[in-house]
Write a structure and sequence with these properties.
With 308 residues, the protein is α/β, with parallel strands linked by helices. Helices cover 31% and strands 17% of the residues. It has helices at 20-35, 56-67, 81-93, 104-109, 133-137, 169-172, 187-197, 213-222, 253-258, 263-273; strands at 7-10, 39-44, 73-76, 97-100, 144-147, 154-159, 163-168, 177-179, 202-206, 229-233, 236-237, 302-303. The strands form five sheets. Strands 1-2-3 form a three-stranded parallel beta sheet, with helices on one face.
Amino acid sequence: MDAMGYVGRLAPSPTGALHLGNVRTFMVAWLRARQAGGKVIMRMEDLDHPRHKAGAEEQAIEDLRWLGFDWDEEFVQSERRALYAAALSRLLAKHLAYPCVCSRRDVEMAQSAPHDGEQLHYPGTCRDRFATWAEAAATGRTPCWRYRTPPDAHVAFEDGFAGRYEMDVAAKLGDFPLARDADGAGYSLAVTVDDADMGVTEVVRGDDLLPATPPQILLYRALGLKPPAFFHVPLVVGPDGRRLAKRHGDTRIASFRAAGVRPEDIIGFLAYVSGITPERKPIGLKRLIGLFDPARLPRGPLVFQGLT
């Protein structure tokens, strides 16, 4: 990858407080960019309105700055809705999007085979059912936009960390959701439009989003955009193997700050468990730039059993 042209991004969502798992992924993303001499973009992904926590945006920014993160540009997704509406219009003009009123329960009931958690296959129940969003909304249900997946939608790509990954999107997902917003302001469409518009060259994120990448690549192609490279890293999990949550104790950065923990202690812990430093000791984030070696990152999830 052209180091001079590297553009990475940090993309927190204000659906909860920043915790150790978020920071570990952001640390890898930040180090990838800074080690390449590239640019870091801060993008607040605030479109998930039902789970939006008041004040979470400001808290996340404050916590990240306290930990030593910096960035070169800053964006807020809710201020970029016109871009998503334009992208949706392009998909509609190509007959690649349509409104759907099926609930998750409806989709679950339509499964012809066992499914793996979030990976539900949508059989196209609402394809060609409604002429407009308004017509779909008139049913009394809140619609979502779905992508009309072509039958030959097989996607394969080489992930920078996870290796080769491929999916027959038509067989696995069917027509996948784009947004639960009349103007297309939703996660799948917004991140695709934003990463292309901001010139992001590599997306570093948790490997729980690896299955979301093939449909996003389909969107890049449909919109005539060049996909970035991808680098999916394992998550930080609790002793039960599940992603960090309240059941594993309080891992919020704000709580560590309130308890008098230093930023160097948190970064030092994450650097050690990520294979960046050979021993656990306090260290500043910027000092890791010269030490970071992606080849030493653990291949499996990091099990968190306490900071002390």
